[in-house]
Every structure is written in C-alpha cells, then in structure tokens.
C-alpha cells in the first residue's frame, strides 16, 4: 500500500503559487473570506485559508458577520464584494445558518469571483468542459492528487459514493471529462443505491464523499484499488484534548491493508481543498485583469 500524501502535494502547489504571485507586477491577488457566526469547524477552516493565502502572498480580507445576519444583509455584503475591483475571489464559508438559503448565496457570488466554484454557471462549465470556469476546490483537489500521484483514469472504473453539489457530482463530472488524466468510466452511488458493496468492489478508483465515519470497510474494496477518502468526521474521543478525533469515511486500518494507494484523514484531500482555493484565486486575478 502506498500513502497519497495530500500535505506534500498541497505544499508543492502552494510553493508554485507563491513563485507565480511573487512574479506578478503591481497589486497582488485578493480573496474575501466571509464567515457567518462561530461554528468551530468554520473558524478553523477560515483560519487555515487566511494563513495559506498570506503564505502565498495573496491578500485576505476577512468578514465576520454575526449568526443573526439576514439573507438580505448577506446578499448586500456579497454585492459589495462583487462590485469591489480590489477583490478577485469571494469565499462564503459553509455551512451557513439554517435561516439562510445556501444555494441562493452561492448563486449571488459573481461567477467571475466564484473561487469556490459553487455557482450555477461554474458548475455548468464543468459539465461543458469549459476551462474558463472555476472548478469546486475539493473535486479539483482530488483530480490534482490523482494526477500528481501518476494515476490516469482512462480505462478505469471510478466509483464515487455521494452526489452532493460540492463533492460527489462535480468530481464525477471531472473524472468523466474527455481529457488527459480523466476519461474514467464513472458510477455514482448515493443513499438510494442498492447493494452498494457489489458496486464499490468493482472500483479501480473509489472516491468516498459520504460524511459517515468509517463507512467504507475492507469487504467493500477491490484489492489494489486507489481509495480517496473525502470525509471529515468528528468522532467523540475522551483521550483527546479536543474531546474528538478526526476520521474519514473509510475504515483506514482495514482498507489500507488491501488498497493499492490510499489518502489518509487528516492529511489527504483536506489540504488540497485549500491549495485549490488559492489556485482559483490566482486564476480569477489573471482572468479579471485581462477581461
Ligand atoms: P453531503 O451530506 O452533502 O452528501 C453526502 C452524500 O452521501 C449524499 O449525496 C448521500 O446520497 C450519500 N450517502 C449518505 N448515506 C449514504 C449511504 N448509506 N450509502 C450511500 N451513499 C450515502 O456531504 P458532502 O458535503 O458531499 O461531504 C461529504 C464528506 O466530505 C463530509 O464528511 C464532509 O465533511 C467531507 N468534505 C471534506 C472536504 C475536504 O476538504 N476534505 C470538503 C467537503 C466535504
């Protein structure tokens, strides 16, 4: 079994972006990070994004509206950021409070600054294989992990578990694209799928984006398969200072014993998501400048 080290691959991408940004003349790229409320996971994700942006030389503008913000007020903030020529990318950290329509917020972000890749136009561009769009960061990160680990999907059966708009659907579309590194034969499984293990056992590349701790067990995996674990689950653990431990959607000990290659949690897909957000921000800067 070979470990796919997301920390290492993300660090290489960040170093490349740092060199690219250092060579840019004039104003540096800028990302606006909007975090509504104090959800602990969101606090740590936004902190990590802010720190990585600073490391690359991307300016970070942090907006921390209270959890009581109305949808209209959040739209007004997004409109202001959309209109600001000094802001290249906008990230609204999810999850948002229940009284806010998250998809409507994603749609409100200008498609030209949608570095999260969640708005309608950018999701459509993934389907159309239009490279001018922004690909959602986690799916883009998974594809970069595979490419930089020398895994070509052509001729492979790729099974994705999960059909969310932020991971499952876009990663399936990317694996399906008719371009180098992709060209996979893709099956998408979800909560309505019958006999899931019989399908996952056919996977040459298995991508788990379910949100259930250690759901994928060794009996569901073909020996030698590549296993990409997207899940980030907090499992109560009294032995930890935080009171919980992080685990993926894959039961790592059992599956790693038979997989050909596997991503760990933490240290697999997670760091790639942040690296791709930064890559999208530099792309937005370049595209908006040349427009
Ligand atoms: P989601 O809840 O939106 O979607 C989960 C999907 O799993 C659904 O489409 C559902 O159909 C499927 N599912 C649920 N139960 C199932 C079952 N019993 N059998 C088959 N399919 C089932 O979640 P999401 O936003 O796609 O996130 C998935 C996981 O990935 C979560 O743990 C999340 O924290 C993690 N995540 C990680 C990153 C990262 O950067 N590494 C980014 C986004 C999400």
Oligomeric nature of the chains:
single chain
Radius of gyration: 19 Å
The total tally of domains equals 2
Q: How would you describe the shape?
A: globular
Mean pLDDT across residues:
97
CATH superfamily of the largest domain: NAD(P)-binding Rossmann-like Domain
Spans of at least 5 consecutive residues whose pLDDT stays below 50 are: none
Helix share bin: 25-40%
Q: What is the SS-derived class?
A: alpha/beta
Number of helices: 10
Q: Which topology of the largest domain does CATH recognise? A: Rossmann fold
Distance between the termini: 47 Å
What's the CATH first level of the largest domain? Alpha Beta
What is the string of SSEs from the N terminus onward?
EHEHEHEHHHEHEHEEEEHEH
Bound molecules: nicotinamide-adenine-dinucleotide
- The name of the CATH architecture of the largest domain is 3-Layer(aba) Sandwich
Q: Quick one: biggest sheet?
A: 6 strands, parallel
What does this structure look like?
- The chain is 40% helix and 15% strand.
- The protein has ten helices and eleven strands.
- The longest helix is centred in the last third of the chain and has 22 residues, at 269-290.
- The chain is globular, with a radius of gyration of 19 Å.
- The chain binds nicotinamide-adenine-dinucleotide.
- The site of nicotinamide-adenine-dinucleotide has 24 residues, from helix 10.
